[in-house]
Amino acid sequence: MEHRERRTWCEEISRINRNLNEEGKKQPDNPFDVFR
Q: What is the spatial distance between Cα 26 and Cα 16, in angstroms, rounded to a whole number?
């Protein structure tokens, strides 16, 4: 894979991961999770 193509893939994967992480933060706190 050429550098430009690899960089495009990495940027896309990073964007997806950031979106997934942001979605995880929107979940309400679980009052039953005392170890958090």
A: 16
